[in-house]
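seq:
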Amino acid sequence: MRRCGTRSSSRSSESNKSPKEQDYIALLWGAFETNYTHGKYQFAFLAYHMLTMSCVYFNI
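struct:
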């Protein structure tokens, strides 16, 4: 799965995000991984949805 803001170009859009935004994405990614590995798929889906919406928001 590709993380939010990763592109094939040499310039990463991660540098365009504030530290708060980077922390938020890291929190959501951690929540997704933890819930998925523990079989709590309904919560993993919610975190995945929030990651998707964050990617859309940050890329607009």
